[in-house]
Amino acid sequence: MSRYTHLADFDQLAGMLAVASRDLCPVIRRASAALLEVDAEAGRTVRAEVAVARELHDRIDGSVPAVLARRQPVASDLRLIVAGLRMNGDMRRMGALAGHIAGVALARYPEPALPAQVRPTFVAMADAAARLADKAALVLATRDRVDAIQAGLDDDVLDALQRSLFTKLTDDWPYGIPAAVDVAMLGRYYERFADHAVGVARQVAYLVLGSR
Amino acid sequence: MSRYTHLADFDQLAGMLAVASRDLCPVIRRASAALLEVDAEAGRTVRAEVAVARELHDRIDGSVPAVLARRQPVASDLRLIVAGLRMNGDMRRMGALAGHIAGVALARYPEPALPAQVRPTFVAMADAAARLADKAALVLATRDRVDAIQAGLDDDVLDALQRSLFTKLTDDWPYGIPAAVDVAMLGRYYERFADHAVGVARQVAYLVLGSR
């Protein structure tokens, strides 16, 4: 194999990771639309998109041994591959969680899964989760402005929103048990999604800043 | 570096993975004891154990680039390293989830987090989760009898238990909203724990069977 082929392998892996992270941005937004706008079409689209994303995550995982074997990478390339596997695991979960959010919306359709009282909290959660997915994709695609992006990288907003949600799930909650369970699970899905998005971005930041 | 040192690196990584998976078995059992026996001491011990486990998971992740760089492994060794990183990610989540189970028990202490009606379901969940953790540890330590172990490797039991749990969380549920939310989250934690345990064992089975 020529050096050129090796580079192509490597670039392809980096490219697949960038595509995988970028593809998750519309997926989480559409999952939130399915939930917030009670849009079954959006929910079904998310399910299809998540299945496509999963194939890409499988291809990424599957390509790594071959890239390692052919390229025998060292130093920064090697860290990228190790980080890439970790990121891919995070992205796999992000896709699954977006699918779960859409799934709850679809299970309740045509009723809204969200009682009016908690809708504003989920609007804020959806926004924060989508922004974190954007940041993960941006930092992975550009490996640039990592300091600036890293500064705004935290899922504290989601943690705080989830905590405020759980304070509403008391015996005064007027919407019944199934809605309370849905709301608790949805809060958890957004919180986990955000945590994995931050994981992706932090891996890139670590790579870029660590190699300066 | 001598060949001997390289082998030591590699064995050390495999050893750390085996220890990490074995250590999770008492942790999930103790987390279940905290929950089922309303045992705060067990709950606090789990928290400490999870913190120790996390350090080992960090050391495993941290050791991989050096092992790869020094050993330039090929074929089966390389697959083991890639699989090892994935397993380590699974085990990291297993530890966190055991910690969440203990956390719910501690948050409700001295009250039981589980209403009597769902206790039998959680006894079964705890048993199934602990057995899957055992299988993951056994298969990772021995890389033996993989076919036999693989045959019994599924988290369908947990999925079915979780579904039966959710059918109880209707408006007829007599224990109030906070208990319903706890029960839903606990069901989710066990289901996710089992899923990750199966992930670990499947990675090993794939490696062993794939290399025959």
Automatic annotation (TrEMBL), chains A, B:
GO terms (BP aspect): intracellular phosphate ion homeostasis; negative regulation of phosphate metabolic process; phosphate ion transport
Protein's UniProt keywords contain Transport: yes
Domain annotation PhoU: ranges: 28-102, 124-204
Protein name: PhoU family transcriptional regulator
Keyword terms, alphabetized: Phosphate transport, Transport
Gene3D superfamilies: Phosphate transport system protein phou homolog 2, domain 2
Entry-linked Pfam families: PhoU
